[in-house]
Amino acid sequence: MKRLLLVFGLLTVLTAFIPKKELKWEAIGDSITYSNSHPEASQHRISVGYMDDVAKAIPYVQYNNHGYPGWTAKAMAENIEKIGIEKADVYSIFLGTNDWWVGLPIGTMTDYENATGNETVYGAYRTIINKIRSLNPDAKIILMTPLQRTEYVDLNNPKVYIQGQFKPKDGVYLSQYADATKAIAKAEHFELADLYYKSGINLKNAVHFRRLRDPKTGEYKDYKYPEYIGIPYNPETDVYPYPVEAMDMTYDGLHPSDKGHAVIAKMLVKIMKKF
């Protein structure tokens, strides 16, 4: 018995030193995905992205970045044959926030089931997933819900402003896009990184404050959420409302800071370690 235990223990130790087989990962997404390895896009307010964080935690993961700023599920579906998606072990799809802002119709699960085309979120996801399955029918697929977001002002072009999720866009809430992503993941038994509901990134910690002029005095004041809702911002005359010290989970109200990317990566690492 002692000899058997010794042999078993030796095998366990030796197995621990066998290198893991490389796990190839194709990351599909929008500007949040793109920002990985592109710190210049944030004027170097970030230094890493969620893919770098995952690869650091799981060294045998090798990724390709297929992030495109401003892209919706429809744009991704329409271009999925052109962007060089390769055969891989794992695919992640991280979209939704642009879909909400441009008003891409969500559609229904029927659009997904019947592959009705790219004019709805459900239909576009079917196109993307069909492409993935054509490359590797056995691949693991991770769907990622959009992050919660507050008022966004583009760091590189402050004239670009987008309202926060605290009110609907064209009568639709960002959460409804997250719910559609969850529904597809459930129906297909895909892995889900539920960033919207479970990451802990929310309106309160997206930024520490917005620096805006007090409407009464004209003097700048740092307003926390929800105090800043409704206070006007004029990009022609006002300073950028998110100085470096305002950064928390995001650096501009939408795009994750290093801290935010680390949260995303932690959720993905938990999933990928099962593969």
TrEMBL record:
Residues 27-263 form the SGNH hydrolase-type esterase domain. It holds the Pfam family Lipase_GDSL_2. GO terms for molecular function: phosphatidylcholine lysophospholipase activity. It comes from the Bacteria. InterPro entries: Ester_Hydrolysis_Enzymes, SGNH_hydro, SGNH_hydro_sf. This is GDSL family lipase. It comes from Mucilaginibacter pedocola.
